[in-house]
Amino acid sequence: MKKSGIDPNVVTYNTLINLAPDYATAVELKDEMKKSGIDPNPFTYSGIFSKDLTNINADHLLSWLLSERKRFPNQLQAAIKGFRMANKIEQALRIVLDYPYLDGSAKIMRDFQGIRLNTVAKHEIPEHRANAAYSSGLIFS
């Protein structure tokens, strides 16, 4: 871009991220954005999480997000939707265990109750059980 005389900004990068063919390319563009001194915003992460997540592990995605200086957890709703569209319900539920208060979390917990119970049973981390109980309370209240 700079060779062409274009001075990129957050909108330029977010547009490129939205046009990126896959998750890996979108993440590379976000890294380039940060190296250029431009801070990602919620639209940046929505664009990244809207990519095909078929080959992405939710634990990896969450670790990566937590390593970011700025975090926008509400944008994880796009990841929940992406995992759901890829029919990776257990991966979507993995995000729900850490972010039970998101609107997308309540919807997937309602729609996939049987899988939800299996996913929660696999995790021995007490916070996950508490978050799952919290989500269940939101759904059935």
Runs in which pLDDT lies below 50 for 5 or more consecutive residues are none
Can you tell me the overall shape?
A: elongated
- Averaged pLDDT: 82
How is the quaternary structure best described?
single chain
Major sheet summary line: none
> In angstroms, what is the radius of gyration?
17 Å
The portion of residues forming beta strands comes to under 5%
Proportion of residues in helical segments: 55-70%
**Terminal CA distance:** 52 Å
Number of strands: 0
- Give the helices and strands as they follow along the chain: HHHHHHHHH
* Helix/strand/pairing category: mainly alpha
If helices are DSSP runs of H or I spanning 4 or more residues, what is the number of helices?
9
Topology readout:
Blueprint: H1 10-19, H2 23-35, H3 42-49, H4 58-67, H5 76-85, H6 89-98, H7 103-111, H8 113-122, H9 126-140
Helix pairs in contact: 1-2, 1-3, 2-3, 3-5, 5-6, 5-7, 6-7, 6-8, 7-9
Model description:
By secondary structure, this protein is an all-alpha fold. α3 packs parallel to α5, α5 packs parallel to α7 and α6 crosses α7. The longest helix has 15 residues. The model has no long low-confidence stretch (mean pLDDT 82).
